[in-house]
Amino acid sequence: MAVLILFLLFFISILFLLSSLFLTGDDRRRHLPLPPGPKGWPLLGNLLQLNSKPHQTLQTLSRSHGSNGLLHLRLGTTTVIIISSSSAASKCFRNHDVNLSSRPPNSIGKHIAYNFQDLVMAPYGLRWRMLRKLFSAHLFSNKALNDFQYVRDEEVMRLVRDLAKRETTVVDIGEMVNSCVVNALARMIVGRRMIVEGEEATKFKEMATEMTRLAGQFNVGDFLPWIDWLDDIFIAGTDTTSITIEWILAELIRHPHILARAKQELDSIVGLNRLISELDLPKFSFLHDIIKENFRLHPTVPLSVPRMAIKDCEIDGYLIPKGATLFVNIWAIGRDPVSWPNDPLEFNPDRFGPGSLHENVDVKGNDFELIPFGAGRRICAGMNLGLRMVPLVTAVLVHSFDWKLLDGQMANMIDMEESYGVTMQKARPLMAKAVPRLQPEAYI
Ligand code: HEM
Predict the structure, then answer these.
(1) Which residues of this UniProt protein bind heme (predicted)?
(2) Which residues 6+ apart lie within 8 Å of 117 measured at CB?
């Protein structure tokens, strides 16, 4: 009898061994747990837990319910995974990038992005690859960007002249910078300015409306259907850039000693007789530390553009199921004390200075504690342009003007409240007077 039981046990364990050998990776992963997360309501899931600033709420939920920067939520019927640490982000983009390179089929993609046909929302596949190649190999290659350097310098010069003319007036800085960025991009893409001189500077929303109105007269996409996908490029490329510059100036005006150091660097290299040009940018170092620090605290796309898992995968022993929507909380990663142990909420460009802990950290998707442009295959396609426009406009505005706030407003009273959207604006625009500080001939 004992021999029979032993034989049965042996037989069962062999069967078990064989069946586990023949289980596919997918079968094994399906038994893994989802990352932890807060309990939700029937049908709605965790939808009611998200308020008007989801990037902040998700940071709190991730700290209280997540594991190692991985959090699972159910929003209606959708499984959502939130990434809030550099270690989780590095696992996503280093180990599972292809799998996580698609976009979920949401309403933005359907109604705004030409039924998922544009570069930003297109699912991972042949069309996306083709558009991306067109974009980076031709439209925004280094050569094309170099060829249009004079266009960006010219548009920034117009901005400076426009500001200098309004010396006694308080201006909405974000709005004026936005016009400059829109015109620079428009000249690069369609060969003409979109916001004509003398016209009141227009926020992008109004510009988008204007573009639709122009459709009857001259809609580039209508006439050349193969480049209709470029319209979206305007959304991705202008708001992000001008909002970043507005945040930087707000931080600099709030921190006069940092602003003074920035001016000193620019003055010592360029002097006071001419405006800064894009060609000067590689000569500055403190300026670039300021820009990195701003990207860390005020990333313009706080929750990244959503990704979708093409098939099941495993991160840190948890299942990321096929079809799950994945958000990277870029904002929370930039403020994570694990990656940024020294006063992470302080605006301190010196954390990137020579000999500092983060001296070699860059923003190009290689260092996962600072990924304002995202990372992996779907990293921002306009990053190289953004990394020229943001430092250029910032440097020129800092070098050419002293910035005076409204009468009676102290620098430390600038409102730094965030307003959440796909792009994260200042809740209240930065208003200031630009007082010229260079030799008069520099503004001619
Ligand atoms: C400061 C400036 C900018 C910031 C912070 C920024 C940030 C981002 C982020 C976070 C993403 C999502 C990446 C991901 O899914 O991981 C993105 C995507 C994208 N951005 Fe930008 N962006 C900026 C400027 C621009 C400019 C100037 C353009 C073009 C003119 C542009 C075009 C795009 C496009 C086309 C995508 C979609 C890429 C794809 O899905 O393959 N961006 N950007």
Answers:
(1) 380
(2) 127, 229
Predicted TM-score (pTM) of this structure = 0.89
pLDDT for residue 92 is more than 50:
yes
Report the C-alpha gap between 421 and 164 in whole angstroms: 32
The half-sphere exposure of 119 on its side-chain side, counting CA atoms within 13 A, is: 26
Measure CA of the first residue to CA of the last residue in the chain; give whole Å: 105
pLDDT of residue 191: 86
Query: Mapped to the 3 state alphabet, what secondary structure does 201-223 carry?
Result: CCCHHHHHHHHHHHHHHHCHHHH
313 assigned to a ligand binding site: no
- To 10 degrees, the CA torsion angle through 127, 131, 133, 137? 160
C-alpha of residue 345 to centroid of ligand 1, in Å:
25
Helix count and strand count (H, E) for the chain: 17, 11
Q: Which two tokens stand for residue 85?
A: 């640490």
What pLDDT sits at residue 2? 55
Sequence-distant (6+) residues with CB within 8 A of 82 are 58, 61, 62, 66, 70, 71, 72, 73, 326, 327, 329
Ligand 1: residue of 333, 373, 377, 422 to mutate (most ligand atoms within 8 A of CB) is 373
- Given a cut of 60, whether residue 23 has pLDDT beyond it is no
Q: Which residues of 245-278 are buried (b: 16+ CB within 10 A; e: fewer)?
A: bbbbbbbbbbbeebbebbbebbeeebeeeebbbb
> pLDDT tier at 137 (50, 70, 90 boundaries)?
confident
Q: Is 298 helix (H, G, I), strand (E, B) or coil?
A: coil
pLDDT, one tens digit per residue, over 361-391 is: 999 999 999 999 999 999 999 999 999 999 9
Determine if ligand 1 sits within 6 Å of the CB of residue 305. Answer: yes
Burial class (CB within 10 angstroms; exposed 0-12, middle 13-18, buried 19+) of 355:
exposed
| Domains of the chain: residue spans and CATH | 25-443 (1.10.630.10)
Q: Identify the pLDDT of residue 224.
A: 40
